[in-house]
Design goal:
- The complex is a heterodimer of chains A (197) and B (170).
- Chain A is built from six helices and six strands.
- With 197 residues, chain A is of the alpha/beta class.
- Chain A has a five-stranded mixed beta sheet with strand order 4-3-2-5-6, covered by helices on one side.
- In chain A, strand 3 and strand 4 form a beta hairpin.
- Chain A is elongated, with a radius of gyration of 38 Å.
- Chain B has 170 residues and is α/β, with parallel strands linked by helices.
- Chain B has a single domain, classed as Nucleotidyltransferase, domain 5.
- Chain B is built from five helices and six strands, in the order H-H-E-E-E-H-E-H-E-H-E.
- In chain B, helix 5 links the parallel strand 5 and strand 6.
- Chain B is elongated and about 95 Å long.
- The chains are: A alpha/beta (197), B alpha/beta (170).
- Chains A and B meet through helix 2, strand 1 and helix 4 of A and helix 1, strand 1, strand 5, helix 5 and strand 6 of B.
- Strand 1 of chain A pairs antiparallel with strand 6 of chain B, so a sheet runs across the interface.
Chain lengths: 197, 170
């Protein structure tokens, strides 16, 4: 115990009469933190490298259920968006002429404009017809634009008392569509050839 | 004259703030870390997801079945379908019910399958848990035909609502 220390417990008391307690000299101590830091950094780097920050997102898609009998649709309620073999995006309304869309953002404007036309509001069906050889990334981009348009349409319709009923379908290009494209929107290379002749 | 030997004075750096920050980062990364699932670690291909911006919802984590479509090899001529489910018990049941799967294939956490097998798997999923959510994870440079075929199988098995896995557009 401290009584037998070199300072001589009893002796110090007598020297300083009024202090009862012995003031112990505090010695600062150091813990060697190096191994702790080593391990911590090791774990830190491990977790830093293994985490994947960007979690994938999703785009919801709902297909109309399969029907055996084809349903007749009024021509004035149908807007077609076509994507052909060479990733060209075209659209036509009703039985109108094909028009090429050079920027996918245009699709959003088209959907917005036609979906809010007074006569076909909430009745319009947008059919996305995609060639078998079209690029999947492009299809998702078009779907994305349509979804963005949908947000604008819903915000336009709120307050008018009407609920938005979205009508959309996706299908493959049919023979008729190919014929329409060939007739109205032939390949550019074909045009050049005919110019040279 | 002999050189005066300088006495080396040991010095100490106060590591406390460093340790503080390190621990803070460590705990952060530990809690946010999400490890690759078994199915992902078996995967030998990389999927470049299409970019989209409208939908900000994240991939559901329970009762999810993923149909992956990717190029079968580097020639990019053929495409392979892969199928996996997050619910292990149900996945096992589905695998056992599917007759067109080879016995050694049933061990895998991610199945490489043909379209016909996909069809059979989907109908078994419908029988076991029709609440299962589906996601199609496909490479953005694939021809649409491959995805359309998978979608068609989904639709035939009455899974008409599903998700495309995408990446955020910058």
């Amino acid at each position: 115990m401290s009584g037998g220390g070199s300072l001589g417990g009893g002796g110090s008391k007598s020297k300083r009469g009024n202090t009862k307690r012995k003031t112990k000299e505090r010695k600062g101590f150091h813990i060697d933190m190096t191994p702790l830091v080593d391990i911590t950094f090791l774990l830190l780097t491990f977790f830093m490298f293994t985490t994947t920050m960007a979690t994938p997102q999703v785009m919801e898609m709902s297909l109309p259920p399969e029907v055996d009998t084809p349903i007749d649709v009024k021509c004035s309620e149908l807007l077609n968006i076509l994507i052909d073999d060479d990733d060209r995006v075209m659209w036509y309304y009703c039985d109108g002429l094909l028009e090429e869309v050079t920027d996918t953002k245009k699709v959003r404007e088209i959907s917005f404009e036609y979906n809010l036309r007074d006569d076909i509001k909430n009745k319009l069906i947008i059919a996305l017809k995609v060639s078998e050889h079209a690029n999947y990334g492009l299809v998702v981009n078009i779907l994305d634009e349509l979804n963005l348009a949908e947000m604008n349409i819903i915000s336009e319709l709120t307050g008018t008392g009407e609920d938005r009923r979205r009508k959309f379908t996706i299908a493959k290009l049919t023979e008729l569509d190919y014929e329409k494209i060939a007739a109205e929107m032939p390949m550019e290379s074909g045009i050049f050839e005919s110019d040279e002749e | 004259m002999p050189k005066v030997k300088q006495k080396r004075v040991g010095f100490l750096i106060d590591m406390t703030p460093l340790v503080d920050i390190t621990f803070l980062l460590l705990t952060f990364f530990m809690f946010t870390a999400k490890f690759k699932s078994e199915a992902d670690s078996e995967q030998k291909f990389f999927i470049e997801r299409p970019k989209a911006s409208a939908d900000t919802s994240k991939l559901p984590e329970v009762n999810l079945a993923i149909v992956k479509v990717a190029f079968a090899d580097s020639t990019k001529a053929d495409t392979a379908y892969y199928f996996t489910m997050t619910n292990k018990d149900e996945f096992l049941q589905v695998k056992n019910m599917t007759t067109s799967l080879a016995a050694e294939q049933k061990e895998n956490a991610q199945l490489q399958i043909s379209l016909e097998t996909l069809d059979e798997l989907l109908s078994n999923v419908q029988k076991i848990n029709n609440e299962t959510k589906f996601a199609i994870d496909a490479d953005r440079s694939l021809p649409f035909n491959w995805i359309y075929s998978a979608m068609d199988k989904l639709r035939k098995n009455r899974f008409t609502v599903f998700n495309y896995v995408t990446e955020t557009q910058q």
